[in-house]
Write a structure and sequence with these properties.
heterodimer; A: 281 residues; mainly alpha; MetI-like fold; 12 helices; B: 431 residues; 2 domains; 0% strand; flat
Chain lengths: 281, 431
């Protein structure tokens, strides 16, 4: 009995040590770039982790600079991210629902096709997409990005959604169908409330996408005022005239903040014991 | 003659869309079908001929000064392709229209009434829900993914490359398998290709395994019932994922900087030598894998925690009553349940890592350069090499060939593996 308790204590203590070390490693780069954004001067390198003097100049410079249209890019990206998140999540969830709960001819083929296509290097399709968007007169517009991001999402997210719906007990929706619920109603009243953790995951992935996608955005968005933050930031880091690390750090902090905040808010839905009570009552 | 209704309806529908439906007394449906036919015929009568000519010849007049009319081979190719896709879709609609007329005719023969328009809609929304809904993502996938991919494949069989075949000043021609031969047998290209290929496979295996089991471990540790402040730990450990990769990787690039980066500063303060994190080929490869763990473990952690929360509690309660140890409970309940739910994701992650452009390009840009490679470096994956070939070298045909080979490798592996995993064969068993 004592041996067992000892074993338990060792396990708990080493778990805590592990978590503390992992937390330090996770936070370090974020803190480093945060302090860099408050450091006076332009240099990339610093002796101290925490600067001796703090300044907000770099944040100020972001919004007043004539060449660095940060505010503009920020709103562009936010708009694209919100719209493609909404459309993409709806598409992904419904596709997952259709493929998880319904049995029809060609279903396995459909799944295999999605699986294969998701493995294709997306970059290869860009030349063709570029020409297609040019013909539809959508080049240099955020609609093009929203369209492509939204319809690209089912390729990546369907399996996650389907896999999750597969774990929701079928007795729940069968009961609802017996009570006369329609297919859409089963989806909105039963599947959606039970799938918040997965919904969170899918929505977040879609929201984050536009913030970090440099390649495709730089292909489509030609004029400077239509850019997203990713395109602008990359331009800032890699154009030789503009080597200014602390401003880059400030921009990085401002980009990371909304996404991190959103994530903290959505955290609440990652509730434990999802099906713990659902199927019993 | 009620016995022959089905064949008559089918023949009428074959003559013109909708006629069979009207004959079956489904007037609204029939008129809709007829309208569709008129639109389709108008479209194809003006375009089909020119599209096919463009696709076969890729044009015959390059742009010359003073001449207004010229052929752009690449535009001709994509127009032809889109017209072809429409043609195939219309042919499918045509066949389905005949089948529908035939089946409705059969119902009349059996003495049942045909559905009126409202009944048809009701039938679709209750019995054909999945098929109808899937049209939307399918159209998106068809035009934004499949069409571009087919186009990319076609490029691999042309000579579309810098410096001699860039339209509109020059024409592009079909060349068959010439580009494949160059890539696989011409010494300068094949040496780079096999070198990059081997590193791509090593990278994909190591990065998938480290992040998946790293995430599994973290999720299991947080999920233990003795651990307090679960929410806090989870929140802290998710932060690397919440920070956009574009930024975290560019930041890492500076952290690992060989000369002034803080990591080497700490090493020196502790009395060690500087480590050439990004400039030595072997160290650079280790660095991209370590950094990828930092970026990727939180994703696996969230995913696996999600699955852990969906495992019914009573399974554990029952196992505990039976006296199963923690390890036994893990082996018998947790591991199979998690693997079951995440097996497809694991494979997708592996495939995703083969094409993990960001993790490599933002951190090292494929460097350090290897002397005898064609435009590639020590950490370059096939996909970043492809990117360089396209954007900086404009070797579109070589890049497309490379893309096609990547695709064949990955698709082959995944299909073989996927058909063997439990979740595909027995997906209806865990319910």
């Amino acid at each position: 009995m004592i041996g067992r308790r000892m074993g338990r204590n060792i396990r708990v203590v080493s778990s805590y040590i592990f978590l503390i070390v992992a937390s330090i490693l996770s936070l370090y780069p974020a803190l480093w770039v945060f302090f860099a954004s408050l450091r006076p001067g332009k240099s990339l390198y610093s002796r101290d982790f925490v600067p001796k003097k703090f300044t907000l100049d770099h944040y100020h410079e972001l919004f007043t600079s004539k060449s660095f249209l940060f505010g503009h890019w920020y709103m562009n990206t936010l708009r694209i991210a919100v719209f493609s998140m909404i459309f993409a999540t709806a598409l992904v969830l419904l596709t997952g629902y259709a493929l998880s709960r319904f049995r029809f001819k060609g279903r396995k083929t459909y799944l295999s096709v999605i699986l294969i296509l998701s493995m294709f290097p997306g970059f290869l399709s860009m030349i063709a997409l570029y020409i297609l968007l040019k013909q539809l007169n959508l080049l240099d517009s955020s609609y093009a990005l929203i369209l492509v991001y939204s319809f690209g999402a089912p390729l990546m997210g369907t399996f996650i959604a389907k896999g999750f719906f597969d774990t929701v007990p079928r007795s729940l929706d069968e009961a609802a169908r017996i009570d006369g619920a329609s297919n859409m109603k089963v989806f909105t009243r039963i599947m959606l409330p039970l799938s918040k953790p997965m919904l969170t995951y899918v929505a977040l992935t879609q929201f984050v996408g536009p913030w970090i996608d440099y390649i495709f955005a730089s292909f489509v968005l030609r004029s400077r005022d239509k850019w997203t933050v990713a395109v602008g930031l990359y331009d800032q880091v890699f154009s030789n005239q503009n080597q200014n690390f602390t401003v880059f750090a400030a921009a990085s902090v401002l980009i990371a903040v909304p996404i991190t905040l959103l994530f903290m808010y959505l955290q609440r839905f990652l509730v434990e014991g999802l099906t713990a009570g659902a199927s019993k009552g | 003659m009620p016995q022959k209704k089905a064949s008559v309806a089918a023949v009428l529908s074959a003559l013109s869309l909708g006629l069979g439906q009207i004959y079956n007394r489904q007037f609204v449906k029939g008129i809709l079908f007829l309208a569709f036919e008129i639109v389709a015929v108008t479209y194809f009568s003006t375009r089909l001929g020119h599209a096919m000519w463009g696709l076969v010849t890729l044009g015959d007049t390059p742009r010359q000064p003073g001449v207004a009319k010229y052929d752009h081979s690449i535009f001709l190719m994509i127009e032809g392709l889109i017209t072809l896709i429409f043609l195939v879709l219309c042919l499918i609609a045509y066949v389905m229209n005949i089948r529908d007329a035939y089946l409705t005719g059969k119902r009349w023969e059996q003495g049942k009434k045909a559905n009126n328009f409202r009944e048809s809609l009701q039938y679709i929304s209750s019995k054909k829900f999945a098929e109808v809904f899937l049209i939307l993502p399918s159209v998106g996938i068809l035009f934004l993914t499949i069409m571009p991919i087919v186009f990319g494949m076609m490029i691999a069989f042309t000579n579309y490359s810098s410096p001699d075949h860039i339209p509109p000043a020059k024409l592009v021609d079909w060349v068959g398998f010439d580009t494949f031969k160059q890539l696989l047998t011409l010494k300068s290209w094949s040496h780079t290709f096999y070198g990059v290929l081997i590193w791509t496979i090593v990278w994909a295996i190591l990065s998938t395994v480290t992040t998946y089991f790293g995430g599994f471990l973290v999720a299991m540790i947080i999920q233990q019932k003795e651990i307090r402040l679960k929410g806090m730990w989870r929140t802290i450990l998710i932060i690397p994922y919440a920070i956009p990769q574009l930024i975290s990787l560019l930041v890492m690039r500076n952290l690992f900087n060989g000369q002034f980066g803080p990591i080497n500063q700490y090493l020196m303060a502790l009395g060690f030598d500087r480590i050439p994190w990004l400039s030595d080929p072997m160290w650079a490869r280790a660095t991209v894998i370590i950094t990828n763990m930092w970026v990727g473990i939180p994703v696996s952690m969230i995913l696996i925690m999600g699955v852990l929360t969906s495992i019914p509690r009573d399974l554990y309660e029952a196992a505990e009553v039976d006296g199963a140890s923690i390890l036994q409970r893990f082996r018998i309940i947790t591991l199979p349940m998690v693997l079951f739910s995440t097996a497809p994701i694991l494979i997708t992650q592996f495939a995703g890592n083969i094409n993990n452009f960001n993790a490599i390009y933002l951190l090292t840009s494929g460097s350090p350069v290897v002397g005898d490679y064609q435009y590639a470096g020590a950490t370059d994956l096939l996909v970043t090499w492809l990117y360089k070939l396209t954007l900086s070298q404009e070797r579109f045909n070589m890049a497309s060939t490379l893309g096609l080979i990547i695709f064949i490798l990955i698709a082959g592996f995944s299909l073989w593996n996927y058909s063997r995993t439990r979740s595909f064969k027995e997906e209806d068993m865990i319910q």
